[in-house]
Amino acid sequence: MNSDRSSSTSPLKRTHTESESESEYAAYLGVGSDALAFPPRLKDEFQTDFCKLLLSGNCAFRLAEAPYWRYFFTKWIPGSELPSRQAVSGRILDAEADRVVEGMKIHLQGRYGTGQSDGWKSISKASIIASMVNAEYDPYILHSHDVTEQPKTAENLLKIVDAEIDFCEKVLNIILAAWCTDGGGDCAKMRRLLRAKRPDLATPHCWSHQIRLTVGDYLKAKLPVVGVLDVALEVIKWFNNHTGALALLRQEQQRQYGRVLTLFRPVPTRWTSHYLSGDRLIETEDAMRVCIVTSKAKLVTCAGKERSQVEKAKNLLGKLEEPLFWSLLREARTHLEPLAIACNATQGDNARLDVVLVTLGNLYHVYSDTSRFDETRDLYILAIVLNPFLRLAPLRKNNPLFTRQSLWQMFKRNYIRMIEMPTPADVTALYAAFIEYLSGIGEWSDEAMGLEEIAQMAEHSGNPINMMTIWRGIDTHDVSGANGLVKFALRLFAIVPNSAGVERLFSLLGIVQTKHRNRLGVEKSRKVVLVKAHINRTHGTG
Fold this sequence. Notes:
Blueprint: H1 2-9, H2 18-29, H3 40-56, H4 67-76, H5 85-108, E1 112-121, E2 127-135, E3 139-146, H6 154-171, E4 175-180, H7 185-197, H8 207-219, H9 224-241, H10 243-257, H11 273-283, H12 285-302, H13 307-321, H14 323-347, H15 353-361, H16 364-367, H17 377-385, H18 404-418, H19 424-439, H20 451-461, H21 467-473, H22 484-493, H23 500-512, H24 522-539
Parallel strand pairs: 1-4
Antiparallel strand pairs: 1-2, 2-3
Helix pairs in contact: 3-5, 5-24, 6-7, 8-14, 9-13, 9-14, 10-12, 11-14, 12-13, 15-17, 21-22, 23-24
């Protein structure tokens, strides 16, 4: 009774309709309901920015024609006109990709760089060869080629790489120092063919791939400490596949740590994941052991009713109760940790030859296998020597390979191969400059090269020391004589011995080419990633 009277006497609240809100917003903007369309130049700019908005958010092109999107922009940006999906994915995307390439021509002109290429199979099962150029530690996308219908041979790969080298040198005006691929059969042969055709280019293989292969070799070893990783994987899979057991573990984690630690399996495409997966399991040791002690019967019940399921649960939980399991897992983590560090050090865009050699110095089983260096071994040693913060310090003093005269001969033969044949007068000047540099005297002293100030600036900015900046700072632009040492150092430190940048490109392509967007062509996908990379470089990734 009271509720009826209350409802009849209470005044009804007036609600705004969408049309009233639109009129109110139009009045706020000072425009009428029939807002004037953007002028042509502003319209083109708006539609270009709209295309970039879609790309930056990994949105499908079809959203340009989605009714609510059109309603939203009409309501909140009067006068705007969304382009069609065909225009966004065609004319507008092509024009923006061309603008990015024009900007690359200006920014990369005269810079030193390393080319990189690798293969990938897309979601639509197309075989793709993609290439990038690392220009002084900054990666840029070049081209991608659909080679699904072509034989997978070194000769065909060389044709692609030749075309990319021409584009880099003749269009972008980059001074190429090297071309890097992984160590696969076709890639290795292609590098040998390229070396014969272009002896001035270094052709290192990808050291991040090599470290990953080393991890693979370790995981194949028939040792108890390696076998425990298989048990750890079964433990992770078992908890993640049984929600009741996982809930009990998470409750114990929350009680002990105040947060939940996710158990995850290692995956081949994440090169440090075996170490991280084992490390995470070790982090949960206390919670897991307490959970087993207090709730073992419940955990077994979570496995299911079949006898085999119960036996498997009891077996796994029994292993987790054994101190030996956790002791072996910690030992395996100790083995994998330096490899994970080495992988991170060698897969960066700023990984140099000296970084690789110093990293391998900590991995004796890789460093002692000199066959992996092939004929580029000299360059790794010279990268250590020409790092002015290191010079001769890391080299063993009683090794005849590292005497000043031996290092000079090493420098001279690589200078001839990568730069030019010096005149007798240039040899004299180069020799004097090289020996003075090794001794750290005159114009090559730490003070003259400004090393202390450069180190302080790097520490203040939080960025790694840029060797290209150091050597470019003392470049006199002479094409011969003592300045040849500077020219050689610039070319040497432009070499980035990994193709990890292309792997990251494939990850971006995988985000663009999904199961729902599997009809996107190779070239269109490349343009999407090219423009998006430019947007991220300009505005950041958040």
